[in-house]
């Protein structure tokens, strides 16, 4: 079966660093996306990993280990506007379906 | 900046009625998708569409669902006989290419249509 696990909720303080983990067991792997979704809005793209290692993009970085079926999203210098859900999504190989995790709701406190 | 648009933003319908949700993907994109998100739950893939035919569909996308690209710009999702459990936010997305592998292709999501079935 297809399974993507993320913590349900996390809380962090403005200015801090937070790491959101994602583990996956899917029928094949052809890439992993991280999306941000504010309540009532559409997901917006943050990052993409297909090779092992770290991808950095401003305050956001994403890491992938394919052998461990593991990724994390790192958010630095947290701002109040970063309060949102963060969705991990895997593209399975063969069918190219996008499988989403349940998302991690991040609350940034002043 | 080009964006995916969806209409209506909110649709209320009676159980058993047919609804058509409309999307205008980004103009140079070739792959189109529908997802749904039941309130408080995860985003679920419904269907992908390329070259005027369905590429892939999930178990959710049963005979009551259909998709169409009636002209060069619109992409529609039809639900033939709505059920209470079809109440959800429906997102359309588009991408330049299929995605995956070294040449990723980001999916751009529309703002969604909130469907309420009474």
Structure write-up:
- The complex is a heterodimer of chains A (110) and B (118).
- Chain A is mostly beta strands and 110 residues long.
- Chain A is built from no helices and eleven strands.
- Chain A has strands spanning 3-5, 9-13, 18-25, 32-37, 44-49, 53-57, 60-65, 70-75, 84-91, 98-100, 104-109.
- In chain A, strands 2, 4, 5, 9, 10 and 11 form a six-stranded mixed beta sheet that branches. A five-stranded antiparallel beta sheet of chain A has the order 1-3-8-7-6, with no helix packed on it.
- Chain A starts with a strand and ends with a strand.
- The model of chain A has no long low-confidence stretch (mean pLDDT 93).
- In chain B, 0% of the residues lie in helices and 48% in strands.
- In chain B, strands 2, 4, 5, 6, 9, 10 and 11 form a seven-stranded mixed beta sheet that branches.
- The model of chain B has no long low-confidence stretch (mean pLDDT 91).
- The chains are: A mainly beta (110), B mainly beta (118).
- The interface between A and B is medium-sized, with 25 and 25 residues.
Count every helix of chain B, treating DSSP H or I runs of 4 or more residues as helices.
0
The tally of strands of chain B reads 11
Count of beta strands of chain A: 11
Q: What is the helix content of chain B?
A: under 10%
- Rounded to an integer in angstroms, the radius of gyration calculated over CA atoms of chain B is 14 Å
Query: What is the general shape of chain B?
Result: globular
Largest sheet of chain B: 7 strands, mixed
Concise account of the structure shown:
By secondary structure, chain A is an all-beta fold.
Feature tags:
heterodimer, A: 110 residues, mainly beta, six-stranded mixed sheet, 11 strands, 0% helix, globular, B: 118 residues, seven-stranded mixed sheet, four-stranded antiparallel sheet
Layout of SSEs?
The complex is a heterodimer of chains A (110) and B (118).
Chain A: E1 3-5, E2 9-13, E3 18-25, E4 32-37, E5 44-49, E6 53-57, E7 60-65, E8 70-75, E9 84-91, E10 98-100, E11 104-109
Parallel strand pairs in A: 2-11
Antiparallel strand pairs in A: 1-3, 3-8, 4-5, 4-9, 6-7, 7-8, 9-10, 9-11
Chain B: E1 5-7, E2 10-13, E3 19-24, E4 31-37, E5 43-50, E6 53-57, E7 65-68, E8 75-79, E9 88-95, E10 108-109, E11 113-117
Parallel strand pairs in B: 2-11
Antiparallel strand pairs in B: 1-3, 3-8, 4-5, 4-9, 5-6, 7-8, 9-10, 9-11
